[in-house]
Amino acid sequence: MSILVVGSIALDTVETPFAGADEVLGGAASYFSTAASLYNQVNLVAVIGSDFPQEHLDFWHSRPVNLAGLQNQDGKTFRWVARYHMDMNSRDTLDTQLGVYAGFHPVIPAEYRRSPLLFLANIQPELQLEVLEQVDKPRLTVLDTMELWIMTARPQLTEVIKRVDMLLMSEEEVRQYTNQASIVRGVRQLLNMGLKFVVVKQGSYGALLFGADGTYFSAPSHPLEEVVDPTGAGDAFAGGLLGYLSTVDPGPDGCYSIDDLKRGVVHGNILGSFVCEDFSIDRLRTLTLDDIAERYRAIVACSHFDPNWWPIKVSN
Amino acid sequence: MSILVVGSIALDTVETPFAGADEVLGGAASYFSTAASLYNQVNLVAVIGSDFPQEHLDFWHSRPVNLAGLQNQDGKTFRWVARYHMDMNSRDTLDTQLGVYAGFHPVIPAEYRRSPLLFLANIQPELQLEVLEQVDKPRLTVLDTMELWIMTARPQLTEVIKRVDMLLMSEEEVRQYTNQASIVRGVRQLLNMGLKFVVVKQGSYGALLFGADGTYFSAPSHPLEEVVDPTGAGDAFAGGLLGYLSTVDPGPDGCYSIDDLKRGVVHGNILGSFVCEDFSIDRLRTLTLDDIAERYRAIVACSHFDPNWWPIKVSN
Question: What is the ipTM of this complex?
Fold first, then answer.
């Protein structure tokens, strides 16, 4: 049960109020692949330049990450430079150097085309459409995006939204795209476009799952004492969600059960929390499924409560 | 099992981007008493001026709210005027007229002094200390406060914190008081002051319960499609929490079980969500325990998930 991902690979330079990292492995596809490969095989489509460090390729070779779709082009790998603010929930992008990413067009190898799970990581909506043209109907297609495309490529983004099953957005992105102050109303507008599911990422507060069938689920997050670097948390979230789904069977109708989707969102929160504990993908390098299971139990313990309560009689 | 509350009663003028309300019943003690009186008897200590509308007193007379400790003084009732911003999470106070509240000193009637539950609503820490001097040792003392006292009366506030069992604070207040960016670290600092419990209010994201015994619980909120007026949500939260606790028995050691405290926080979120659905205490006027039970079930349904997950074996 392999997972196809198309997205960016970058070399990130990140500064937080407490520490920094220089030219480390970054990009949505890097975070996603590393997280999801803890669960199953990942088929990666992306582009790197001739300066891309071999050690990162060696790392992925040590994991079930298929690199047949990784384009290695003459030129420089995509660079991203950012600085986080004191509260770590906001950041400024200081520099972006597209490099080989500027001329990137995804090519899906024949062996990838029947991947039952597809993650369209955050890249230009035009490129996401090119991917959809090249795949057989996957069982579940999941879309991520960002503010930049909502502002600059709205018609194309709208086209992609209409063609996928599940959309991941932050609360701010829901408000921006739908122009609704209420998340509940904004999500309803999105579901009316044909989506089966919308997942609203709430950062340190967890995530919400909304279904066109009326499903509503609020997944608690794992509280971190210290956030080292939140970069990639949303991509690792997607990796946990699709990674988990790749380990379970859908029903006879080809759809995942709501219970499995709920557990998937919890796995997303778990991977998103782990990735914040170090720079780049570093925390994921040593992470095991046992670590994930332990955090799963911790989240159950901190969020479940006695489901039964009946009103008592009050005397006046 | 009565609940003693000491706090403010006000006449509020509130404007939101969508509507407004003029000189309506407000003040922390009003919200708390109305919410908690759905569960049990509330013993109210506060001050009103000679201009206070009789209809509000009539309303409380129709509920199990004991007004023996309500001081009725010559002069004007406390007034508060505020305007909410577009996102309703922030507001500007436009005017505050203390009126009779300026000379207020709480006097606890003899019949109130053995109330097993005490809520020190948001008033000056000096007045909260005066209350603590007048009560027999309650089973549980719960403290609320606000940014103003953290900034202007920190030593007195610190004195109160050291003398209560449970503190309610927003995330911003935890950061302000402890000077810690991390909520987990800030709460640990607060617990080290001798508190048994800290509840961190997260507005529309719910609330966190931390215990000196290591307890950690994340209570999901009920998603509202439309927030009419968030004024009083924190006070109604406290009303739901103490209201619920007033209906259950503590253990032989006089302490509430962690399971009951968790359910109490859920009841807090429920009352906090209801109060946002209308101006003033208006939604609470018609609210019933059956409505609360229905929302309790809805929160269970949207937050619980399969507690069991074991890692599968991954082939490389």
Answer: 0.91
